[in-house]
Amino acid sequence: MKVTKDTIIMDVLKMNTDTAQFFLDIGMHCLGCPSASGESIEQACMVHGADADKLVEDINNFLEKQA
Question: In the CATH scheme, what is the code of domain 9-66?
Answer without folding.
Answer: 1.10.3910
